[in-house]
Amino acid sequence: MTESHNASDPNETPEILEAHWDREQVVQLFHDLSEGANVQHVQVRTVSDSRSQDQAVTLLEAKELLEKDEARAIQIRYDFDGQNWCDTLMVKPDEVHIIRTRV
After folding, report:
1. Most buried of 42, 51, 81, 88 (most Cβ within 10 A)?
2. Cβ neighbourhood burial of 17 (10 Å; 0-12, 13-18, 19+)
C-alpha cells in the first residue's frame, strides 16, 4: 500500500509518501540508492540490552544491520535527480514502514 500526501502548492508543504514494504523491496532500495543517489547521511536506531542507541553509519552498514535484524529504524537523507529526499524506515517483524519526504 502506498499513500501520497501533499498540499495543493508543493512549495508550502513537502511531498510525503508512505508505504509498507517487505525486506526484499528494502534491500532493492539500498541497491538503488547506492547506484543512483548521492547519499548525504544515514542514521540508525538499534536496540541492545533493552537500550536504544542512535548512530551515524554508512549505507552499507545500515543494510547489514537491517539484514542482521539489529536495526529498528533507519533514516536516509539523499539527493536524487536534483531533489533532496529523506526516507525513514521503521522496521517491523514482517514488514518495513517507509515514509519518504521531499525536503
Report:
1. 42
2. middle
Pick out the chain residues at pLDDT < 70: 1-13
Q: What are the grid coordinates assigned to 8, written together?
A: 495543493
Grid coordinates belonging to 45: 536506531
Specify the amino acid at residue 26.
V
Question: Distance (Å, rounded) from C-alpha 72 to C-alpha 47?
Answer: 7
Interatomic CA distance for residues 13 and 100, integer angstroms:
13
Which DSSP category does 81 fall into?
T
Half-sphere exposure of 69 (CA within 13 A, CB side): 4
C-alpha gyration radius of the chain: 14
Q: Which amino acid is at 79?
A: D
Q: Which residue from 66, 65, 61, 58 is spatially nearest to 42, judged by alpha carbons?
A: 58
Tell me the per-residue pLDDT of 36-51, one tens digit each, with 9 for 90 and over. Answer: 999 999 999 998 777 8
